[in-house]
Write a structure and sequence with these properties.
The structure is a single chain. The chain is an alpha/beta fold. It has a single domain, classed as Carbamate kinase (3-Layer(aba) Sandwich), CATH 3.40.1160. It contains 10 helices and 12 strands. The strands form 3 sheets. An 8-stranded mixed sheet has the order 3-4-2-1-7-11-12-10, sandwiched between helices. Strands 5-6 form a two-stranded antiparallel ribbon. Strands 8-9 form a two-stranded antiparallel sheet. A hairpin with a 2-residue loop joins strand 8 and strand 9. About 3% of the residues have low confidence. InterPro entries: AceGlu_kinase-like_sf (IPR036393), Asp/Glu/Uridylate_kinase (IPR001048), Fosfomycin_R_FomA-type (IPR024192). Pfam families: AA_kinase (PF00696). One of its GO terms (biological process) is terpenoid biosynthetic process.
């Protein structure tokens, strides 16, 4: 079983100041690559359907939370419709309803029935407050329970270090790359950009191989080919 994260930058315009602009051609392209897929959990980012709303409205009261959550839902419905058209038996799961007491047994049953659970970035209730939960965090939480064969993050780029694509991350080089990475630049991103993705990926890689790659390598990943950036399984300390 695989867990696949589709970055919000792949399915939405995520430039600074952009508000709810979907990349429908890219959604269609991704859906064709995933045509008929099973035995996978998909998590997608929300890009300009999430981050700008949080910055504009916050998550301090019921109406602001409503605006943020409903924007995330609009993107999820759109993305799932393309997957459905390509024979993917999607089962959308909305984090605001699923967390903080997730029924992971239900997700196991859905996979056995042949469904493809589809999560997304969202807001969730935690104690007496609401907070943003990123798709990357959801991937890490699901990975801890399901122990997938591998995890893939389809993003707008591989990991870049000193101007070059990193082919392999391992226990020898991960610290230097971590020092070099910073949050997303020039994008409305309230969840930490590549730095957060890398940190979550290192946590996941304690249990399985993780890949961070551009859209061009999605099909290869789904065919179990090795693509950059591969993060080897290892004892990573953050």
């Amino acid at each position: 079983m695989k867990i696949l994260k589709i970055g919000g930058s792949l399915i939405t315009e995520k430039r600074e100041g952009v508000f709810e602009v979907a990349k429908e051609k890219e959604m269609e392209r991704i859906a064709r690559i995933l045509k008929g897929v099973r035995d996978v959990i998909i998590v997608h980012g929300v890009g300009s359907f999430g981050h700008p709303h949080v910055k504009k409205y916050g998550i301090s009261d019921a109406m602001s939370i409503t605006k943020v959550h409903n924007a995330c839902l609009r993107l999820n419905v759109m993305f799932c419709s393309y997957l459905e058209k390509n024979n993917v038996s999607v089962f959308p799961i909305h984090p605001i309803e699923f967390f903080p007491s997730p029924d992971l047994k239900m997700v196991e049953k859905l996979l056995k029935f042949g469904f493809v659970p589809v999560f997304h970035g969202d807001v969730i209730m935690e104690g007496e407050k609401f907070r943003v939960i990123s798709g990357d965090e959801i991937v890490r939480m699901l990975s801890e329970h399901f122990k997938p064969e591998k995890v893939g993050f389809a993003s707008d780029s591989e990991i870049i270090y000193k101007g070059e694509v990193v082919e392999v991350v391992n226990e020898k080089n991960y610290r230097e790359i971590l020092k070099d990475l910073r949050g997303a630049v020039g994008k409305d991103d309230v969840t930490g950009g590549m730095l957060n993705k890398y940190q979550e990926a290192l946590k996941i890689a304690r249990n399985c191989e993780v890949y961070i790659f551009s859209l061009e390598n999605l099909e290869k990943f789904m065919k179990d080919e090795i693509v950059p950036t591969k993060i080897e399984k290892g004892n990573y300390k953050l």
